[in-house]
Design goal:
The protein has 664 residues and is α/β, with parallel strands linked by helices. The chain has 3 domains: 41-298, ANL, N-terminal domain (Rossmann fold); 306-382 and 384-496, Rossmann fold, CATH 3.40.50.12780; 501-662, GMP Synthetase, Chain A, domain 3, CATH 3.30.300. It has 21 helices and 31 strands. Strand 26 (524-530) and strand 27 form a beta hairpin.
């Protein structure tokens, strides 16, 4: 491939070191992304405390009241926690697993471990004990932070199998009075007090530890997606994470006046990216919900200016809007439909970079203030300046609808292995079919077989206890994703290479695209498209129980629960209507010919999805093999023996008969 003579030197160097022949490439802005002398997160915390000491750094909802935590208080809590860890015996290089909801204490523990020259490791709080076990052992975590009794009980149930663990540090001791005599347990308050005592003896120890680190040190462990098995421990340096955050700020405006709402699991790299990589470098406020059950209410009350979420979050919001609009009177529904038509007309012109006529621009403003702004206010999105979606490709329909309603939605692309983001849309250059352009100083290339590979200072140090060269070659990260570059220089992500389906006639199908089209319906929660080397496409659908239940009640359809409702003939008719609507826009060979409504939802606790809600397709294919085979016969029903898990952890088998619906 011929290279333009005016390529920046860093791009030429990257391409010359490409591990194999590449089909095409794109690169981000030729802008210097310099990491200052404050090249670690604890150093940034010290700096922010000095410069913005009395300003609000964090806010948490407590008993209905938003309580502020200043930068000075933030630092003091981290310092006490860090010195307390050292007093307990925490040593350089030690790892601490963090298990809990989004709380300031989670941040204190994370930064405290870094300041003690150790490594924090965020673990999803909804992991089961048997899922926690390999993560704790594989990371060699000697210390564990648990938020409450639920998380502590999980760890105690596997304590005999994690012999390296020294202490379990517990934040909330509610209901745990019988645990006080357990020598392995200690409270956060006790650790803080030990830190205060050590500070009196060694007042300079904290700063000395912080200043002894550099950007080349390991900042944290993070988990891979785990779609094919146990998630791997990814090693990210301070340089990796800070480069990504600073590069993002070169193309997305952020300031200390911004409010970020932290509600996604802090174990997810996307959340750490916003809270640490951006939160500490920019200095904006990070806000926490009161309880997981109050997230929606707290979001609406806060009204953040920056928000980041996977496609499922945005889909649930839009499903709520769609269902409520369906319930309003004819006139209001008509006004909403007209407003959406205006919004769609405007954003479609923007996607094509066409000028919006004055009359249409005026109509858009009227529609926004009369219709969309009140709706966005109810969702908590009225003040949003930047809304990001990532973790998977968002539905084109969801993307268009959000932007039509006035939400500045941008698709990002990245992986944990590249510190979260490698591509995103720029203001004024948004296309719903793409993931935008690379961040500054980032090169994205497409290999001859269609795989996306990336090179950037944000690429990981490697997987823990696994040779670096197996995953990163000459600094290039292999993604496992299939993609292409469009005429505008945007990255188009097709799907995981391992997930792309080839039908018997040679037709290539990207399941994710069809699944997203199906999930645009408020009545479908999850979908899985099937299957490789088959004569036609079929689908397994999960109903959106809350929305379908409401629909059933309005139509006088009795049901006893999810299983019963999912197999109702009327529900199958409802789902068939959705499938037919999706099929209308597809070429003949790519249309969905049959589907089944599964008797249960795909569930991370059943290992059918990852904790970031990605389908574990291999496991699903194995578990539902008989069902899938039946979809490719003339059968109209299939008997299936499945397993259900109760909330107390016990399991039982259940025999169900599921209908198979053919879509002519």
């Amino acid at each position: 491939m011929d290279e333009p003579e005016n390529l920046p030197g860093w791009v030429k160097e990257a391409l010359e070191n490409a591990p194999e022949e590449i089909e095409t490439y794109i690169y981000g802005e030729d802008i210097d992304v310099e990491i200052s002398e404050y090249d670690t997160f604890p150093k940034l915390l010290l700096k922010n405390s000095r410069e913005m000491g009395n300003e609000t750094a964090l806010r948490k909802k407590d008993h209905g009241i938003w309580k502020r935590i200043t930068w000075r208080e933030y630092l003091e809590n981290v310092k006490k926690f860090s010195l307390g860890l050292i007093a307990l015996g925490f040593q350089e290089g030690d790892k601490i697993a963090l298990i809990g909801d989004n709380r300031p204490e989670w941040l204190y523990a994370y930064l405290a471990a870094e300041a003690a020259r150790g490594i924090p490791f965020g673990v999803y709080q909804d992991n089961l004990p048997e899922q926690l076990l390999p993560l704790i052992n594989n990371s060699n975590s000697r210390w564990i932070y648990c938020e409450d009794q639920e998380q502590t009980d999980k760890v105690l149930s596997i304590l005999d199998e994690i012999p390296e663990v020294s202490k379990i540090i517990v934040k909330d001791w509610t209901g745990m009075w019988r645990y006080r005599d357990n020598p392995v347990l200690i409270s956060v308050d006790e650790v803080m007090k030990m830190g205060e005592e050590l500070e009196k003896k060694e007042p300079k120890l904290f700063e000395e530890n912080v200043n002894s680190q550099t950007k080349n040190d390991v900042a944290c462990f993070a988990t891979s997606s785990g779609t094919t098995g146990v998630p791997k421990c990814i090693m990210l340096s301070y340089e990796n994470m800070m480069f990504m955050g600073l590069a993002l700020q070169k193309v997305v405006s952020m300031s200390t006046a911004d409010d970020y709402f932290s509600f996604l699991p802090l174990a997810w790299i996307g959340e750490q990216m916003m809270v640490f990589s951006c939160g500490l470098t920019v200095g904006f406020r990070v806000n926490f919900y009161e309880e997981p059950e109050t997230v929606n209410r707290d979001l609406k009350e806060l009204g953040p200016t920056i928000m980041f979420g996977p496609p499922r979050i945005w889909r649930d919001m839009l499903a709520e809007v769609q269902v409520k609009i369906a319930d309003v009177g004819w006139l209001k529904r008509r006004v909403f439909d007209i407003s959406m038509k205006i919004g769609y007309d405007c954003v479609d012109r923007e996607f094509k970079r066409e000028k919006i006529p004055f009359h249409l621009s005026l109509a858009r403003k009227i529609a926004y203030y009369l219709v969309f702004r009140p709706i966005l206010d109810k969702l908590g999105l009225k003040r949003i300046r930047h809304a990001f979606t990532g973790g998977a490709q968002v539905s084109i329909d969801d993307f268009r609808m959000l932007r039509a309603m006035g939400v500045n939605m941008k698709q990002i692309y990245g992986q944990t292995e590249i510190s979260g983001i490698s591509c995103l849309h720029r203001d004024g250059d948004v296309d719903p079919w793409t993931s935008g352009k690379p961040l500054p100083r980032t090169v994205i290339a497409i290999t001859k077989n269609g795989e996306i590979i990336s090179k950037s200072p944000a690429v990981m140090l490697g997987y823990y206890d696994r040779p670096y060269e197996e995953d990163v070659v000459n600094g290039w990260l292999y993604s496992g994703d299939m993609g292409m570059v469009d005429a505008k220089g945007h990255l188009v992500v097709v799907d995981r290479m391992s997930d792309v389906i080839t039908l018997a006639d040679g037709t290539i199908v990207a399941p994710q695209h069809l699944e997203n089209r199906l999930k645009f319906s408020p009545y479908i929660r999850e979908a899985m498209i099937l299957d490789n080397n088959r004569p036609y496409i079929t689908a397994i659908l999960n109903i959106h129980f809350e929305n379908v239940a409401k629909w059933a009640e309005e139509n006088n359809i009795p049901f006893t629960g999810y299983l019963d409702l999912s197999q109702k003939d009327q529900v199958y008719d409802l789902l068939e209507g959705v499938v037919r609507e999706v099929n209308k826009d597809l070429q003949e060979s790519m249309r969905i010919r049959k589907f089944v409504s599964l008797y249960k939802e795909f569930d991370p606790d059943d290992e059918e999805m990852t904790r970031t809600r990605k389908l574990r397709r291999g496991l699903i294919r194995e578990r539902y093999r008989d069902l899938i085979e039946a979809l490719y016969t003339d059968a109209e029903e299939v008997d299936f023996v499945g397993e259900i898990k109760y909330e107390d952890g016990t399991r039982d088998q259940i025999k169900v008969r599921m209908k198979i619906r053919r879509v002519e």
